[in-house]
UniProtKB/TrEMBL annotation:
NADP(+) binds at residues 78, 126-130, 214, 237. It holds the Pfam family Shikimate_dh_N. The keyword Secreted does not apply. It comes from Natronobacterium gregoryi (strain ATCC 43098 / DSM 3393 / CCM 3738 / CIP 104747 / IAM 13177 / JCM 8860 / NBRC 102187 / NCIMB 2189 / SP2). Signal peptide: none annotated. The active site is at 65 (proton acceptor). This is Shikimate dehydrogenase (NADP(+)). Keywords: Amino-acid biosynthesis, Aromatic amino acid biosynthesis, NADP, Oxidoreductase. The lineage of its organism: Archaea, Methanobacteriati, Methanobacteriota, Stenosarchaea group, Halobacteria. Shikimate binds at residues 14-16, 61, 87, 102, 216, 244.
């Protein structure tokens, strides 16, 4: 039996176990997905222990996604190094390898909704972990990326690393100006998670814009409601979460994932 899992602290509310277990059941795989909650200072030992026990693959969540890069237990690939975070570890090779599937998860979520990324102008609000991953993914796919962040210096620092990117603050009128020539908008902040709020003025949204909100609880954020009312294409955060899991499944198993079954299991718990 193959064993996959999640490293994090805390992990009790993770949606990864039901999503991956649904894939195993659908394909009849002898596999299980379990959660591990090591102490914050025991990450390297936890990874070495997983390797010794023959675990096939691990997802990584807070607070360990950045810390993986500092351990000697994992060889980190180029994309995860650029993003500065690892969310997936593969044990199938001669040494554990670290990957980041957040960028591809966002791209696949957009493309699933028929959003063209190549040649597009994309506005990413937020320059934290999600914003970094999505900005690199969009730029590598051929988009011009405008990064807007509350702390303007952080936006400029990220834009200096991302090809074809420019950093901006969030002073009054900035988002309206950026969105006037944009094709894609991504909310990579937590605004909308704890309250019915949005980082983007409703009158800046319009028909023809594609809007991805990385927040997935609630599924329909105020930003997405405003975007739908304006006639924009809306992509909720569960699609990004789904496709980062799909990417991990593909990496670990080499199998075609049952996306519909994984999506149904994910959304049934949201």
């Amino acid at each position: 039996m193959d064993v996959f899992g999640l490293l994090g602290n805390p992990v009790e509310h993770s949606l990864s176990p039901p999503m991956h277990e649904a894939a195993y059941d659908e394909l009849g795989l002898e596999a299980r997905y379990v959660t591990f909650e090591p102490a914050v200072d025991d990450l390297g030992a936890a990874i070495e222990g997983a390797r010794t026990l023959g675990i096939t693959g691990l997802n990584v969540t807070i607070p360990f996604k950045q810390d993986v890069l500092e351990t000697d237990a994992v060889a980190v690939d180029e994309m995860a190094t650029r993003i500065g975070a690892v969310n997936t570890i593969d044990f199938s090779g001669s040494e554990p390898t670290g990957h980041n599937t957040d960028a591809s998860g966002a791209l696949r979520a957009l493309r699933m909704h028929d959003v063209t990324v190549e040649g597009a102008t994309a506005v990413v609000v937020g320059a934290g972990g999600a914003g970094r991953a999505i900005s690199f993914g969009l730029a590598d796919a051929g988009a011009t990326v405008e990064i807007a962040n509350r702390t303007e210096s952080t936006a400029h620092e990220l834009a200096d690393e991302v090809p074809n990117a420019t950093g901006h603050g969030l002073e009054d009128g900035t988002l309206e100006a950026l969105l006037s020539g944009a094709d894609v908008l991504v909310n990579a902040t937590s605004v909308g998670l704890e309250e019915d709020a949005t980082p983007v003025p409703a009158d800046a949204l319009y028909d023809g814009l594609a809007v991805l909100d990385a927040v997935y609880r609630p599924l329909e954020t105020r930003l997405l409601r405003d975007a739908a009312a304006a006639g924009a294409t809306t992509v909720d955060g569960a699609w990004m979460l789904l496709y980062q899991g799909v990417e991990a499944f593909e990496l670990w198993t080499g199998r075609e994932p049952p996306v519909e079954a994984m999506n149904d299991a994910l959304r049934s718990r949201l």
